[in-house]
What we know:
The chain is mainly alpha-helical. It is 84% helix and 0% strand. The protein has helices at residues 2-33, 36-47, 51-76, 81-98, 105-124, 126-134, 140-169, 171-193, 211-225, 232-236, 239-269, 274-302, 304-323, 331-341, 344-347, 349-358, 363-391, 394-431.
Amino acid sequence: MDKLENGNKKFTMGWMIVIGCMIIQAIPFGVASNIQPQFVSYVVEGEGFTLASFSLLFTIGTVISAVASPIIGYLYSRISAKLMFLVGCILSGGGFLAFYFAHSLWQFYIFAGISQIGTAAISAIGVPLIINAWFGEEVKGKAMGLAFAGGSIGNIFLQQLVAYSLVSQGYSRSYLLFGILSLVVGIPVTLLMIRMPKDHNEVVRAKNKSKKDNDHDNKHEHDHKIEWGYSLTEVKQSKYFWLFSIGFIFIGIYVSALAVQYPAYLRGHLGLSATFVGFVGSTFALFSLFGNIVGGFLFDRLGAVKTLIVAFALAGVACVCLIFAPQIPQLAFGFATLKGLSVFAYMMGPAYLTGIFFGKKEYGAILGIVNLMFAIGFAAGSSIFGFIVDKVGYFAGWSTMLASIILGYIIVILVSINMKKINEERMQSLRK
């Protein structure tokens, strides 16, 4: 009876952590990362900035958070997760609130950097680190998928709220209100719901019913007690780590181009209506929600290699849909559907794969480097695409992105195959 109660308590606490992470993704992350584009036209008009100069805010925020990611990951190995989340929430929400006081470009740039550093601490590094610690390999994907789905769920409501607020309150007061919302939600959730497991007995694992499954589960339980993970020093000496990181540079390149450039392509180049493009965007948002959840289940059910092959196919066909959209405009909805379903590959993929490839020993620091490499690709992708389109045209631009998809996924899939073999050999040697 006591064993059953302990199991239920462990199960309940683990999934309560997931709910806490979903809320963090929905509000603090959503405020800092998802609603800023709606402010652009209002701020540009109100402050007299050029669109190009104010848009640099997004690039600066991305670059600063990317550079800070390895440092944040290192700090997670030295400071309690609750304290890191608390500081992250204050920086994320406080930085966004501080836009209320900004009237010069340099002030907007600084506050964007502060906000994005905090957001990286709670979302890009924090949420995966917490989920990786609380869940075993058998259910980690599902838990991580649900946690990241919080961002999509929150975005549905935040977009409507911010649109109303900008009209009724103006951009300055809206910055203040949504910054306060971020702090009011993020700080209590962190204090009440975020913590690391006390020991391996609190880690949530899949329920197995057969004797064979129980033996397999016992083996995993024994493996969990073995400190098999890699140190940051070991990882830096591994060619597969650097190949893995390079793979995500290519993935970042195509993600950036496909996410940012499709509206201009559909409306400006193909001459489709704003309503049509809006429906394409809504389709993408809807299937993105399902993508994170489905991706988590796929990682748990199929394993890393097969799931990455699925993501490869989804992203590749999505890009092909854009290539042939001039002949069949309805393919734009195929792009939105498939690209939305594939978001798990880059939303939770770096975090999930870093955990199963390199373990928990210095997970945060290692993930910080992977996120930095992805951010480098993401920051460069849209510019690379724009340069190619200006010189050669859209067909060449999308074809280059398709090549980036092929290169990125082939590299990451090959790393997955090899790291699985290496880690199996590592575990066997540690069991002796």
